Description:
Number of helices: 11
Structural class: alpha/beta
Helix content: 25-40%
Shape: globular
Bound molecules: flavin-adenine dinucleotide
Low-confidence stretches: none
Amino acid sequence: MQHRADVVVLGAGMVGVSAALHLQQRGRDVILVDRHARAGEETSYGNAGLIETASVFPYMFPRDFGQILRTALNLSPAVRYAFADLPEFLPWLVRYYMASAPQRALHSAMAELPLIRRSRIEHEALIAEAGVPDLLRSTGWIKLFRSEATLATALGDLDRARQYGVEADVLDASGIAAHEPNLSGEFAGAIRFPAPGFVPDPGGLAKAYAALFAKKGGRFLVGDARTLEQEGASWRIAGSDGAIVAREIVVALGPWSDQVFGPLGYSIPLAVKRGYHLHLAPRGNAVLTHPVLDSDQGFLLAPMSKGIRLTTGVEFARRDAPPTPIQVERALPKARDLFPLGEAIEPTPWMGARPCLPDMLPVIGRAPRHPGLWFDFGHQHHGLTLGPATGRLLAELMTGETPFADPSPFRAERFS
Ligand SMILES: Cc1cc2nc3c(=O)[nH]c(=O)nc-3n(C[C@H](O)[C@H](O)[C@H](O)COP(=O)(O)OP(=O)(O)OC[C@H]3O[C@@H](n4cnc5c(N)ncnc54)[C@H](O)[C@@H]3O)c2cc1C
């Protein structure tokens, strides 16, 4: 048996599903291919659920010496690295450091701004069409500060972000208690961002978008992207029930995208920032309304449908190295002090890998040397946020429409 389509999208995470929907909306016959039988089973399942319209400045390498030293000594709660893997990712870290110089970081932020601004609008449209309004909450989120110094730095950053339209309320202890009465601790203050959306089941949202894609005639097939071959003017993948053939291919494999671009000869510096989560039941009648980031302690609590999801910051390690959930173990007692948490809901923490390029911008657009091959990966800390907006941008490029944002900063050629 052979399956044919105009376009095959490889990868059914938030990024691939969104690209498939946007291509379908533009009249393309699309097949979505994943190694799993269901969408949203990997990174797009395990994130913190924020549609982060307030993050106009991407997460860059710290420039502050104290922070660099704490990180180098593995003392930072938000960032940890696996010493044994250091030789592997050190060259990438150097590129990340260079791309984080103030002018270059500002360039990344300005390139991404139109996508961030579009992110919630695109999700709202898909959520309405998919008929899943419960999967988007308008709570915004809260960033807590335990020290006056970190609060002061964050307020400086906020002044800058406000110039780009970010809205925020600065809260004192009573303001924090008014918004989240079950939090305990000594706080210097907090910032509440009211505009970002919160998705209480990110994997469920990817599945709802995949169901919408199928309802509109899209096909979802199981296959291994590593079998991709060029065959004349077409591309072929070995699917689990026969070959899948199309003239155009979209690589949306998130942290695994190198499995396709690598063998085709592209040297794109994709690395990962790993992260963990663990669900816990709230104790008694305790309720958490917003996702809450304890910024000085480096973890976030999000009120997911499945329980309170404790998510960690960044771990630099090889994508496929065994999990080392030290950050979860360290955060857990602090999280219990912050909010009344009961039993863990799963036996071991989940681990995922944020797909990152050194300039913290995704790669979106045509593959430079292979006609019919397109890239849509590297969404770093913001793949839930940006999936639908970058899906639109990619589909506009593929169908010759005028793109809603300047696509040039996202070209793969920037690394040649
Ligand atoms: C702890 C944590 C918290 C986060 N919090 C947020 C947040 O609050 N907001 C936000 O916007 N982002 C957040 N992110 C980032 C976000 O989750 C990612 O950027 C996003 O999920 C990437 O989506 P993706 O579709 O590119 O990748 P994935 O979701 O990983 O999808 C890739 C797909 O490719 C498939 N695949 C892989 N290899 C093959 C193969 N060989 N053949 C076929 N299929 C294959 C996989 O099965 C998978 O379905 C967070 C990430 C982490 C780890």
